Each structure stands twice: as structure tokens, then as C-alpha cells.
# Entry
Amino acid sequence: MDEEYKILVADDEAGIRDLLRDLLSGSFNVDTVERGDEVLDRIARDRHDILILDLQLPGMNGIDVLRVISEKKVRVVVVVITASNNVETAITAMKLGAYDYIVKPFDAEKFLVIVKNIVERLELEREVDTLREQVGEKFRFVNVIGKSQAMLKIFSTLERVIDTDSTILISGDSGTGKEIIAKAVHYNSNRKQYPFRSLDCSTIPRDLIGSELFGHEKGAFTGAVSRKIGKFEVSSKGTLFLDEIGNLSIDMQAKLLRVLQEKEFERVGGNQIIKVNTRIVAATNRDLRELVKQNRFREDLYYRLNVVPVYLPLLKERKEDIPLFIDHFLKKYNTEFGRSLNIDIKARMFLTNYQWPGNVRQLENVIKRLVLLSTEKVVGPDQVKALLEFEDPAAPGPGDGDLEAQGTLPAGGDIVSMDEMEKAYLERALEHFDFNISSTAKALKISRKTIHNKLKRYGIVIHKTTVV
Amino acid sequence: MEGEYLIIERLVRNISHEIKNPLTAIKGYAQLLGLKPGDPELVEKTRKMVVENADLIDERLHALYAVFELTPGEKADIDIAGTVGEFVRSLDDDIMARVSHINPPGGVNAVLERRGILRALHLLVGRFDWKGNGGASLTISLRETEEGKPGLDFEFFGVSFEGMKGETFFLPYSEKKLYRGGTELFEVFATARMNGWRFGLLDGGARRGFYLVF
# Structure
């Protein structure tokens, strides 16, 4: 057993305290108290993992201690030990969350088995917490790709509302990262330790969506062979992401509105009222206001959802983020497939200026294919163009000719120049190699002299820890 | 009969609880020896714990039947208020600060066993767990009953008397939140019985405290 686990023994009998200390101290840190009114303060101070609790204690009896632990959700596993084998007391203790109830005089070996089982449970819980933390870390705002002004503004808005339970409506074209933002909202909020669930309202058949959202009772309809818990209930205290919300039928919109207003619902085929505390993040790639005008979306539901509107820009409207996405996806798929592909600067410029009708999802797909299919170590613009043309010959790209004639120059002319691209790339490469000119030159397959010339040309000054 | 049966049941439960604790220690150390054989320190500790806990069982049983060995003392004309006042002044300063006594003008005298009154005061006031009930205070006041008999009310403040019932509150080990030893109220009950006094909960439990009627 692991000595890092802490146990608190609360018993007014010195013999019991000594016995349990001697029984457990080889494998645990063991503390003891003799009064019930000392237990809670001691746990708050020393954060014990396990509490061995006698019920007959001076100051505050064990059941009252257990009640406070349950009400305040103190994180400690409680084993009740008592000389009373009164069934009602045992039931009360278990209902208050005790892990086990042992009658004195107890068998020492059986007691140790119970403690061992608790340790296994605690280790599982720790593993789940760690995994949850790791998943959550991925979606921290600082780790979500978006240094463009548009994205920074979105993060700033979300940070202000993240812990307020306000409904958020994310609008954006397909592939712009709506679910990523929904997850970022959840994992940066005080709901992060509770479930995140998502439902794509466009992929579930209309007659089944009610059951998906609200669950159903056994026998509610043909095929309902057992009770099902719906996503609203599963994600209570957490977050439910409803993608393509514009696809909900009118009657389902009415039900959703009721849940948002009353925070309660009934399962399909059931009549028990179920209360929930689920935060809703909805997303759409359609203009809901237009759907409201066409009477295809309820106006009251629209206003209930649109408390915090978020508009995700098209990828081509946040070009500054494209190089970051390129690096991110290269790293991801190189690791996944055991490759070490790189993309040269001209290809990167091409990718940055491409129109990306499929947005981030399309960019990710392209990088993934490049990593999988390329036979070279470094990919140039020709391979990239070929892949994109193969994907969709009609899709607009930056091309080599007149961009305006191709109709691909965005209004406002915010295309990034080759020099700006090269400068940005050079700065990142230098930072990656800790401003070591030789290493950077070697990686970029250019000479040190070329780098010095480029530094002079772009006015880049190195101060050993940063570029200016 | 039903009431008496419940009292006996409560008594048996209380006593078995107090015996089970030292038995747990004895059994536990015996098993621990088997789990960690050949440890001379553990052998010595086990020896010590078995002896100590066997003595503890003996002590607890002795405390129970000792009350039946009480003998009445001499009776004399006692100034009850004066006796209470003298007792309160003998308490430690920190406890004395939490105990007040109310005397009617003129005082109250009665022919009583002084030793019995002092024993009751010592058990109810001196052996109260003042440390564990940090917010507690006590008022002792003289009462005169309908029959004209004098008595004392012990009314506590800042403590809970929850769960104390008129028929069983005095049983050994019924009440450990207020009295650590567990037998204090039983000893008062036995003293009262021996002297023909009445001992009970104030207003049947409606107020937090006890009464003694002489």
C-alpha cells in the first residue's frame, strides 16, 4: 500500500486508537483524535484521504460528523466503526455516504482488506482526475490556437462569461472550430470536473432526438427495452453542446425552451419531473434570425440561446493563425504516424493565402494527407497545390496568376506578403532553436550568411532571448 | 412492562458497547501479533494492551455495581443554598466563571444527607465535560415543589440535550457528550434513590437540565 495516503482515526478509546495506529502505520500516515468536534477541523487542515470514525464520540457524535461531511462534500472516504450493530444506525450511516460499517470487535485482517479496497478506489479516482485534467489542459484558452485579433476578442468575451452559466450561441461556417470553442468554454469553467456531452442535431433522426436529449422510460416506444438517461441528465452540472441547433424540429424547440426556462423535464414516456443544472452551448452554421423570419425557428428560443453570441471567423479571415495551425497539425500527425515531415516556406505561404472553403477542418485534412502520403522530408508548394487540386479542382486557391481575376483576393486586400511570411517564419525558427544561428541555418537548409542577410533585410535584432 | 423492557434493552446495549471497545483492542492486538510475527516491540506492546484493556473492562463493570454498594450517611439540618454556594466556590476558576447559583432570600434549610448532596453536585457539575462543551454554562437554582419539598434545578445553556429521554437518560453510558465517564448520571440516580429523592430531566426534557427534589 502507498504511504502517501493519510488516515485519521476518530475514537474516544485509547486502546482502539493505538490498535489502528499500529495496524496501519506501516503503510499509511496515521493521525488520531478522540473527540468528534475535532474531526472536521483536522481533516480540513491535514486533508486526510480516509476517516475511520467511531459513532459514539464526545463533543459531536459520529453520525453528526458524517452528516456535515456529506453536506459540505468533504472529500474523504469514511469507514464507520462502532460497537452497535443496530441496523437503523448502519442504514443511516450508509445513506450519509459511509463507505463501510464495521462492528466491534472486528477482525483485523478483514479490516485491512477494506482499507486496501479503498486505496484501490482512491487510486482509480486519482487516475480519472489526472486524465480529466489532461483533457482539460488541451482546451485551456492559452492552448487553443488563435492569436488573431478576432480570436483574441472571442476568448476575452468568453472569459468574462465562463462561470456565469449563460447560454452561448456559436455561429460559424462548417469547419471553423465550433466544438473546440464549446469544449474550451467547458474546460475553462467551474463545470470542468463534470461531464461535457455533445449532440449534432442534424445527424440524429427527428423521431429519436427527443430520446437522445431527454432519455426515455422502458416501453416508451417500440424498441425502448430499458430506461435510457438522456444527454441533459448525463451532463447535469456540466455542459451540453448542441451543434446544428437550427435543425431542431419546432416541437423539439418548444421542449428545449422549457428546459432552458424551468431547468426540468420529463423523459419520453415518463411523468417524473427531473431537475437539471446543465449549461447549454449551442452552435449553428445557419442564420437563425433568417429562420425565425421564416417561422422555422422559435423567436423566444433564439433569444434564450443568444445570450452570449460568438461569431467564429472563416479561416481565411484569420490568416495569422494559419501558420500556427500548420505547425500544430504537422506536430500532431508527425507524432501519430512516426514521420518528420516539414513544409518549406513557399508552401507555407501558399497555404496561408489559400481560401480554405472547408476552414480549419480542411486545413487539418490537408496536413494529415501530406504527412501520410509524402515521400520527401520537406514538402514544397507544388505538392501542396497538387493535393489541393486533387481534392477539389474547382476550389479557389491563391494561384500563380492574377488573384483578383480568380476572384480569390479577399475584399479589403488583407493577403499576407511573401516577405511578411518569410520574416514571421524566420522569427519562429530562431525562437525554436534558442536564437542559435548555426542550428537555424542547418534546419532551414540555408547558409549562416543568408540568415544574417535576412536578419538585416527584415530589421530583426536578436537579444538572445527574444527577437525585436 | 414495555417501558421497563426498553430500559433494560437500553442498559444492555450501553454496557455491551463499553465492553466491546476494550475487547476490540485485545482481539486486535492478538491478531496483529499473527500478522507481524517475531517483533519483540509488538509482543511487549500487546502484553501491555491486553492487561490495560482487561483492567478497563474490570473498571467499567466495577463502576456499575459500585453504585449498589453506596450506603446512606448521617442526616443533618442543611442550609441547601449555602452548601451549593460553598461547592461552587470550590470549583476551578474557569468552571466557576460558567456556573451561577440563584438563592431565594432567607435561604432554605432541610434535614438531608450532606454527603449525598455534595456527591450529586460533584457528579452533575464537577464531572461535566466543560472542556468538550466549550460554550456551556449552568445555573443552579433552588426550587420549591407543590408538596413543599425543596429541590435544586440544574439548567444548562449552550449545549444540546437532544436524544435524552426521561426513562433512559440516567442509564450507564447513555450520555457521553456531556459526561465523559458515562456513569455520572447513573450514580446521581442511585444516590437519589438511596435517599428517597427524585431525579429527572427539567420539564420532562423540555428544558436542558436536571432536577433533584429532596
Remarks:
- Residues 399-413 of chain A have pLDDT under 50 and may be disordered.
- Residues 108-138 of chain A form the longest helix (31 residues).
- Chain A has 19 helices and 16 strands.
- The CA atoms of residues 23 and 109 of chain A lie 10 Å apart.
